[in-house]
Specification:
Elements: E1 4-9, H1 20-28, E2 31-34, H2 40-43, E3 50-53, E4 56-57, E5 60-61, H3 65-77, E6 81-86, H4 96-106, E7 110-113, H5 118-125, E8 139-143, H6 147-155, E9 163-167, H7 173-182, E10 190-195, E11 203-208, E12 223-227, H8 239-249
Parallel strand pairs: 1-6, 1-7, 2-3, 2-6, 8-9
Antiparallel strand pairs: 4-5, 9-12, 10-11, 10-12
Helix pairs in contact: 3-4
């Protein structure tokens, strides 16, 4: 028998922000391999599936990447319908490309179901448009996990020319701010640190680049950093208040 693998982007965590196709695949799944940041609410959408946690948090890996490839391949070879469930979008700093290539090499049938990337969702849910006429006509998304990864990109961006979105940068936020200021970014550049954007216990810190390193950081919630003039709109766009009202009445 030959099964099938769906590489599914779970979005920012709110089940209502899943795509319809992702929801159908979860309901029909035999096996769900989920990451650390996928909330329980999403897993409950796969009532008939076996769930296997394959999450990776900083310094705490439940299984290595090759092991994840092996789990997907063996399950599909047994004829199972597998959902590889990742937060955000699988192809945005999520190693989805590596998993697709592994399935391709093994001759396993698969599909890619995009999700709403937290690089876009977190700012939007915090009332921050990543582009805005007269402020920013573009944006860059970078991983803040390690300096060798982000340094060349940050050094190549002219100060203040676009909105900078940093994923996985909570622990390196002070170093990132210091580097940008040294490269000519104004210390007063509006900056946001967004935790758990779609979760009830989420919160957003608004300040400037010079004080980013001092911002309170909740290590248990996913964090997104937004740097640029568009952050100044956060206090004017009150979608977060509307979202709370919708949640309370739904």
């Amino acid at each position: 028998m030959s099964g099938f693998v769906s590489l599914v982007g779970a979005g920012p965590g709110d089940p209502e922000l899943l795509t319809l196709r992702a929801l159908r695949r979860l309901r029909a799944a035999d096996l769900v391999l989920n990451d650390a940041l996928v909330p329980t609410d999403l897993l409950e959408l796969a009532p008939n599936a076996q769930r296997f946690y394959v999450g990776k948090r900083a310094g705490r890996h439940s299984i290595d990447q090759e092991g994840i490839h092996g789990l997907m391949i063996r399950a599909a070879q047994r004829g199972q319908r597998v959902v590889r469930l990742k937060s955000g979008d699988s192809f945005v700093l999520g190693r989805g490309g590596e998993e697709a290539l592994a399935l391709e090499a093994a001759g396993i049938a698969y599909e890619v179901i995009p999700g709403v990337s937290s690089a876009l969702a977190a700012p939007a849910l915090a009332g921050i448009p990543v582009t805005h006429r007269g402020m920013a006509s573009g944006f860059a998304v970078v991983s803040g996990h390690a300096e060798p990864s982000y340094a060349p990109i940050l050094d190549g961006i002219a100060p203040g020319t676009l909105t900078l979105v940093v994923l996985m940068g909570a622990k390196t936020r002070a170093a990132i701010a210091t580097r940008l200021i040294a490269r000519g970014w104004a210390p007063t550049t509006p900056t946001a640190l967004i935790h758990g954007a779609s979760q009830r216990d989420g919160n957003t810190w608004i300040g400037d680049l010079a004080t980013l390193g001092d911002a309170r950081c909740d290590s248990e919630l996913p964090a997104v950093i937004v740097i640029g003039e568009v952050v100044s709109l956060a206090g004017q766009i009150s979608y977060s208040e509307l979202r709370e009202l919708i949640s309370a009445t739904s």
